[in-house]
Amino acid sequence: MDIAHLGHLELMTPVFDKSVRFFTEIFGLTIAGEKGDSVYLRAYDDYERYSLKLTAAKTNGMKHVAYRTRSPQALERRAAALKGTPFEIGWTDGDLGHGKTFVCKDPDGHVIELYYETEWYEAPPELKPSLKNQPQRFPGRGINPRRLDHWNGLAVNLSECREFFEKYLGFRLTERIVLNDGREAGIWLTATNKSYDFAYTRDATGVPGRFHHITYAMNSREEILLAADVFLENGVFIETGPHKHAVQQTFFLYVYEPGGNRVEVANAGARLILAPDWKPITWTEDERKKGQAWGLKTIESFHTHGTPEVAHK
Amino acid sequence: MDIAHLGHLELMTPVFDKSVRFFTEIFGLTIAGEKGDSVYLRAYDDYERYSLKLTAAKTNGMKHVAYRTRSPQALERRAAALKGTPFEIGWTDGDLGHGKTFVCKDPDGHVIELYYETEWYEAPPELKPSLKNQPQRFPGRGINPRRLDHWNGLAVNLSECREFFEKYLGFRLTERIVLNDGREAGIWLTATNKSYDFAYTRDATGVPGRFHHITYAMNSREEILLAADVFLENGVFIETGPHKHAVQQTFFLYVYEPGGNRVEVANAGARLILAPDWKPITWTEDERKKGQAWGLKTIESFHTHGTPEVAHK
Amino acid sequence: MDIAHLGHLELMTPVFDKSVRFFTEIFGLTIAGEKGDSVYLRAYDDYERYSLKLTAAKTNGMKHVAYRTRSPQALERRAAALKGTPFEIGWTDGDLGHGKTFVCKDPDGHVIELYYETEWYEAPPELKPSLKNQPQRFPGRGINPRRLDHWNGLAVNLSECREFFEKYLGFRLTERIVLNDGREAGIWLTATNKSYDFAYTRDATGVPGRFHHITYAMNSREEILLAADVFLENGVFIETGPHKHAVQQTFFLYVYEPGGNRVEVANAGARLILAPDWKPITWTEDERKKGQAWGLKTIESFHTHGTPEVAHK
Amino acid sequence: MDIAHLGHLELMTPVFDKSVRFFTEIFGLTIAGEKGDSVYLRAYDDYERYSLKLTAAKTNGMKHVAYRTRSPQALERRAAALKGTPFEIGWTDGDLGHGKTFVCKDPDGHVIELYYETEWYEAPPELKPSLKNQPQRFPGRGINPRRLDHWNGLAVNLSECREFFEKYLGFRLTERIVLNDGREAGIWLTATNKSYDFAYTRDATGVPGRFHHITYAMNSREEILLAADVFLENGVFIETGPHKHAVQQTFFLYVYEPGGNRVEVANAGARLILAPDWKPITWTEDERKKGQAWGLKTIESFHTHGTPEVAHK
């Protein structure tokens, strides 16, 4: 129980200006800071200063993901558990918006930052909300996601990854896909009452450390339908959706931001995992072949497109 | 962190048959058991066997509320903490659907049950869902709430109650109303990432132990608008809403079931409390007078109607 | 301007009892009459007695479609225009719910009834609505469509059909698909402010008189998403959707009723054709290949499945 | 049947710049022209060049309302019918966006323009939509109404007004309120399949020619709930709603633009008046006292606030 929640992701983009324009004008995030080659972006109900660090780079993909711990002690406990393991990278002083940070990597090589000290967002006067239980004004610009929800990585060996997250970080598995040969092809884990804070999907290319998508939460399915129109009008590539996942029942819509990274907007309705002893749901290969909840076939690129992009056979 | 979540409520009704018909045919709950003078009811995504025990009685109001602990050890810890205090009532063997139970009461006299062992709902064949991550088929009958969300009690001294829940049960305060004279007039507490699992409102009558409402979660605001039509068509008394609360931002609709108990259906959008160190929001008397989020004045009966009903000056 | 609106369809089903159960318990229509091998069904806001006549038969498909005229004189004018043409079938005394009827067929052989005298629905006491501007109580059972919206026929030669409907019945073309070889592949026509009261799609099988789908209007897109869950839970075959058509922008969901006939639920948002001189929109073959509005590819069966079913090469 | 639909309104505002900013940045209309003291504004799916002419003036209120006829002949017929009556004002050359116009006034003094020739909106390149059956790109800015829907006038003698609109312009009454003393207190009339294109409400002040509100159509009720948040965040005065009218069943939200004129956003679901012989619904004084559909009491200012504003006793 040491991890409180997903904090932020750092995504790389080879077309920085276009990506910034996408995330601010079309996606409706707000710039909460700039430093070096990066801008720090936030949704209107993220309580921390930002939830997405966008960094100019030669390629796309995820540079790191950060989780906030429940307390300073929890941070020390996680660091102690990882100390001396092959996953340890070490302590840093943190970054804009958060303090002292322990860095590690998962068995697939995704870089993970753990931190507790964080900067709560203080809206400038023109962005003050009308309701004081919300950190920032509802933008009314583009699609207006509420908050960061989860992310999805690609990994070569999902079972190793799952064990890592269960053992070292205390995440709980809520659902998974197991192929007929016994290999896990998808895992969904949580540290909160959300049914997942992140998911990993098997990377068929054998290239480790890749990124599948980042997801922001919308307040309703109707907001996702409206987002689809906004994406359509702005020439954003819509990969698949809106539709409802059978796994986790999330209502989803996937697009690619100009830098090539996949971005999802999602709504879970009122679904939460409240049981402290939730028994993971296992989906078989046959069940998975049925496609999404209402019968939409899973689009081929969903299995192949990740960032950075690699050649497929 | 010993309490996992709100488990169920036991409500009393002097018109048992009418109340059962309301909760099953109009509200869309399913009967999951019957014993003595009670029926046990559930929403389609409640993972436990039931979330509402409805009991024939001479009056209305709440007989008890039950919270599930995170583990058997957590249950023992809470019992040990309460043992010997004026709040202790003692152990029981449990009830249909849950095991060994420690019973206590809060400073206002509401009876609280704590338990860990619980029966997971197993749907009979005709109620099996199509998606295996859901315990029961979506009913498609009446208003179809997804799951129990929270409840609201009335209490004479809110500060005493808040301290009780913080100290003995580990709930965290997320929002509150403080009057100009310094008294708390409303408190919202949580043990989960929901922004509240229950709330207490000041009872101006001075009568302790009363009940304000039970709330089921709907997947969307549109489902609440549809519910309003279903209530209208079935002659159910709509007290106020649909509208959006300023406090907690919940989209709400309040009705009275035939027994007189207030019932709410609500949707929180994608709002969650993810911060482990959330700083409680305090609303002043003046802010409260502004009414609900979009300006609807708080209806008078919201301050006066509770169950069991008492004479007002 | 002689046609007022689409009145009803008569659909045939080889599995009568199952189809009746589908349309009443899952789809949420109400039985408003029975005669011979037929039941007469209605949505809650259809002002006429019924909008669907369902008839037991050896096959599936549409037996006839009926349009109401704006006045008795309008009916006489349409009959006079058709008298002596190859399309004339002749006068009948009508059927349950409507009076004197002129019957004709379109160039593809679909049977069309024209009538003016109609029976306004009078709800029995238990189905009286709470609001007097609605003929029947909102059912709160299954998916609850509001009213009949449109239907879609298959035809071998769309241009002939279009000219027939424009010349003899005064329908106006609002949108169409024209293939690279100049043939029309889809036509949408209206007699109202709805953007279409019916559509015809080119039948590649060369078999005339076939039926593509009947459509009921839902109040919102969210109701269509809820309908998808109801269909899923009841084992109804979902062919495609929910998604948004590029043509006419209709939000759609297609299922097959047990008799094999395709049934759509749809929502047009606030879109209406108000211009009396609307200029038809023409979609090219290339534009059509882009799929639906948000990129969903048009499903193959949408081009091949019609009723009665015929063998495809 | 000579009137096709409501074309546009000209509203006056004493705070022109603030009103323009409201209608463009918050309300999401687009400027489609400027001339003299006026800007011409449009919603994204209005097919004509504009639907709102906003004019700087010393007061607020409506300067004129314009209806488009079904044909040039229809315009001539309406002019001929009104020629020589006390309602005639005479012909003009039109205005930006529409040609030759016959001007008259109703018995209460509201100025009415009738025209046929109109300019279809042609979007500049940056506002071209992705779907060719829509005149302009969905803005994704503010609340994004789809199109002008209706307007509401105040009048001293509603029966005289109703008879004028029925006799001279061919509108049909669909619903009305009749007081116990026999006077009409509200009338709703239509020339389309919408259940009303305008309404008149009894003006208790005895001052003729006043304006109650203009209404734009939203695609869904959820869009209206989102609009409420946008209004809240921008300090726009919300008078009442969101809620559902009993009369006409419209889901509504009323605000005041900075110039003091009341503006509504509304959604009718899939409700249409398709019957050519619709029998008007009459609501009694007692029924009216029940308030709106789900029990919200009609707010007092709804009976008193009109523009230009006058002193009330």
UniProtKB/TrEMBL annotation, chains A, B, C, D:
Alphabetical list of Gene3D superfamilies matching this protein: 2,3-Dihydroxybiphenyl 1,2-Dioxygenase, domain 1
PROSITE patterns noted in UniProt: VOC
Keyword vocabulary terms for this entry: Dioxygenase, Oxidoreductase, Repeat
Residues annotated as signal peptide: none
Entry EC number(s): 1.13.11.2
Keyword Membrane part of the UniProt annotation: no
Any one Pfam family match given in the protein's UniProt record, by short name: Glyoxalase
Molecular functions per Gene Ontology: catechol 2,3-dioxygenase activity; ferrous iron binding
Top-rank EC class of the record's enzyme: oxidoreductase
Domain named VOC: residues: 5-117, 147-268
Keyword Repeat: yes
NCBIfam families: catechol_2_3
Protein name: Catechol 2,3-dioxygenase
Lineage: Bacteria, Pseudomonadati, Pseudomonadota, Alphaproteobacteria, Hyphomicrobiales
